[in-house]
Amino acid sequence: MKVELTEVSSRDGLQSETAPVSTADKIELVERCIDAGLRRFEVTSFVSPRAVPQMADAEEVLQGLGTRDDVVFQALVPNLRGAERAARSGVHEWVCFLSATESHSRANSNCSIQDAIARLESVRELAAAEGRRAVAALAVAFGCPFEGVTPTAQVLRIAGALVDIGFEELKLGDTIGTATPSQIRTVVTALRSAYPDLSLVLHLHDTRGLSLANVLAGLSLGITRYESALGGTGGCPFAPGATGNVATEDLVHFLHAEGHETGVDFDQLVTHGRWLSGVLGRDLPARLQKAPPIGATRPLDAAARAVG
Ligand SMILES: CC(C)(COP(=O)([O-])OP(=O)([O-])OC[C@H]1O[C@@H](n2cnc3c(N)ncnc32)[C@H](O)[C@@H]1OP(=O)([O-])[O-])[C@@H](O)C(=O)NCCC(=O)NCCSC(=O)C[C@@](C)(O)CC(=O)[O-]
């Protein structure tokens, strides 16, 4: 099966980094991922620089990347102020995010869910007027750091409101990595049955080691679009305890091993993940940055075995 990946390392991957990452490094990160074959990116966020200082250079990053016909660049847009910035930047697609629980909505977007939906309706209208595609993203769609497991009925209610105001695509965020394969099946099946025309994307975090199991559940339901971050970087600054996205290296390795096509060169990805580790000055969670290639390790000889 052909699986489409959206690379989110320059946005979700970096947004919680406290030390500033240079604009040049952000641009190089995206360019390296393009070289490895990735074609869809959440590049940056047009959010308040006071809330997320790491995304303050959104305009400069997009300007440095320039316009490309072969790649889709997305940016997060929470409100009209962000929409005006996005319109000026020319970014291809606007990601209109909101939260599935009231507590996370207040923490992340400083408003109620209902107010967030109203904000996003105006953002979507401006996107349409600008000839840009707007897609929706729902944080804490499976579990919330403040409220526990997110009820499926709540996800359905919000998805319905988003469909009513014209969204055709919804990214489901497992922000704190609590989703399980059975919950993925329940939520996706319920959404499909209520809104058959709504296109679904899974945005998974690996906090509890279940992200690839959740991808497998998604694949079994025919979901072919996933989001990931090089190195397994990432985490929402407004969800205490949030950790990295499913690592692009681990996801691509898994998908190729299962016979799926991604268009991504795995070896290049590993090289670029190690480069990112150097930029951030630490080991990153991606397992496939450390695992040796299968068959490349020489067996221990007798002498080495004797000394243990
Ligand atoms: C949502 C807002 C903007 C509301 O922010 P607010 O404080 O309610 O907005 P406000 O209208 O009261 O404005 C307050 C100040 O922010 C400025 N401001 C206001 N908006 C903008 C903007 N767009 N761009 C630039 N500046 C902006 C505005 O100009 C003003 O500046 P001041 O006059 O005080 O100097 C704010 O709370 C915010 O930026 N929050 C950050 C949310 C965020 O980025 N979260 C992380 C991404 S979501 C995520 O990670 C989850 C996801 C999607 O990945 C899914 C998953 O992982 O599962």
Automatic annotation (TrEMBL):
Listed SUPFAM superfamilies: Aldolase
Report the residue ranges that make up the Pyruvate carboxyltransferase domain in this protein: 3-270
GO terms (molecular function) for this protein are: lyase activity
Pfam families assigned: HMGL-like
Q: Does the keyword Lyase apply?
A: yes
Q: What UniProt keywords are attached to this protein's entry? A: Lyase, Metal-binding
Alphabetized Gene3D superfamilies for the sequence: Aldolase class I
* Keyword DNA-binding (UniProt): no
Q: Which InterPro entries match?
A: Aldolase_TIM, HMGL, PYR_CT
The family line of this record is: Belongs to the HMG-CoA lyase family.
Q: What is this protein called?
A: Hydroxymethylglutaryl-CoA lyase
> Which organism does this sequence originate in?
Ruegeria marisflavi
